[in-house]
Amino acid sequence: xxxxxxxxxxxxxxxxxxxxxxxxxxxxxxxxxxxxxxxxxxxxxxxxxxxxxxxxxxxxxxxxxxxxxxxxxxxxxxxxxxxxxxxxxxxxxxxxxxxxxxxxxxxxxxxxxxxxxxxxxxxxxxxxxxxxxxxxxxxxxxxxxxxxxxxxxxxxxxxxxxxxxxxxxxxxxxxxxxxxxxxxxxxxxxxxxxxxxxxxxxxxxxxxxxxxxxxxxxxxxxxxxxxxxxxxxxxxxxxxxxxxxxxxxxxxxxxxxxxxxxxxxxxxxxxxxxxxxxxxxxxxxxxxxxxxxxxxxxxxxxxxxxxxxxxxxxxxxxxxxxxxxxxxxxxxxxxxxx
Amino acid sequence: xxxxxxxxxxxxxxxxxxxxxxxxxxxxxxxxxxxxxxxxxxxxxxxxxxxxxxxxxxxxxxxxxxxxxxxxxxxxxxxxxxxxxxxxxxxxxxxxxxxxxxxxxxxxxxxxxxxxxxxxxxxxxxxxxxxxxxxxxxxxxxxxxxxxxxxxxxxxxxxxxxxxxxxxxxxxxxxxxxxxxxxxxxxxxxxxxxxxxxxxxxxxxxxxxxxxxxxxxxxxxxxxxxxxxxxxxxxxxxxxxxxxxxxxxxxxxxxxxxxxxxxxxxxxxxxxxxxxxxxxxxxxxxxxxxxxxxxxxxxxxxxxxxxxxxxxxxxxxxxxxxxxxxxxxxxxxxxxxx
Lengths: 338, 338
Description:
2 copies of one chain form a homodimer. Chain A is α/β, with parallel strands linked by helices and 338 residues long. Chain A is built from 9 helices and 16 strands.
């Protein structure tokens, strides 16, 4: 327990972050203040939202300061606790950042994990904010009905693969959009999509969606935006719902021109709603319980890609943003103290 | 009872319809078929949606055929009825079209009017589809709460003026967008908006909205789209709702480019929903009853502009589409037979 290995934002990227934008540092070993818990980081999360977090400009969170450890969700094990209700050995999900040790205020701790429920790594994925994201976007906003057609972007990814399975559980027909033939097969064979499209192999994505969704699209779960949204909008049915989960297909600040969509929204009486899972954290225990039930019953599947050491985190983020991962991307930092 | 004066679509306009696109004809006097009622037209409606109805291209209704009487809502008085439940003298709202006489099937009759409730002309305006449009857009979709800020387009118009008053009744602060200083004053002094902006007088509409809505905008009732929507989006609060009622600021087919909006929808968790009042006609009796209560209690006001003869209808439509009317635009065709 000497220093604190950290991955720090070394400079502010102007576009997609690169490995060289991050610096490996030895920070001070943190001390738990009067309203804090000292945790040892076990695993950290790598998320598409990080692209926005490191940039200047308006977002739903202030940008990560240059010189600070990268913001991230993580799993920590409590070593010293000055927080009522938390004691040494407890496993928690919180904003650990990309570092070995963190002193967390109560507001930075999202919840305690029950390690008997499922492998603890799932608390950052299918049984964590990833699961909550898919749940809110698909079940609260998308609300698929039996026999309806549901189109899901980044369908082999952590959120998309779960969103598709949740729609299947509702009896919907699911079609996935993904970025390689390998992932296309993964969508159909592993995650149970009824069909999947490798958008990189299509000259006319709207036409490819039309072929895969002959009855049109009733629910569109969109983590991409841009031309992908345009292609989906061309296939939406009257009364369709669009859950806007991300805009990874746009420049990070979202500034781009394209066809105006309000006439189509009007004519087809479309409802389009943006959401952030973090607005729904107060519901996560109930959602996780429900998802855990489906997971134990074998009704939903998930994939994880765990990089073995903290210094891999920037490369894992770049892989993710290039669409070269499959499943939830995590980085191992330390083992749980049994 | 010889012929049937009709205003027929003489040719298909390519942009905003002009008076010369319509032709005055003497059609055949209609005969009520076995499942029809013959009505004498009393009043017909002039609506922004007509711009879309006369064009080719995808819309929520097929285009009005060239050579047919212009499609419109109207008030008719039944002369001969082969429909159970309707008898001579009854006043009905239905798709009379711009013509003196019409044989209406049951599906073309929206409802019977109670002439004791209010002047019958209101059945095409504040106590008709116009009222239903404002009600659905503001109360079902916008859902303003006390103290919230509501921004309304075409605020001196039939739908906008009512939408603003419905928001005021919910305790919201209302700001109207309108196209002249005279209408701006009408919004504030007659319809009770807390503030109004003459958008034609503003170089920077987003900035003008910012000044008029210092706490941001929680509900945006949009009948315009395009640059007006962009200016409003720049001022929407987290969780804001946009009711997409029309796109009169776009070319008729809605085809235009502009800034992409999905990032803003995501970051501010905005919900944007298109609607057509005609989807909600099954609810109109209840809505009209509620609106009639407010009208009788003096809690809402409305304006009408009634052109005196049927042949005025094309010019009334052009006036409306140029924003030169105030209040609900109607055309008188005949007097009620007492």
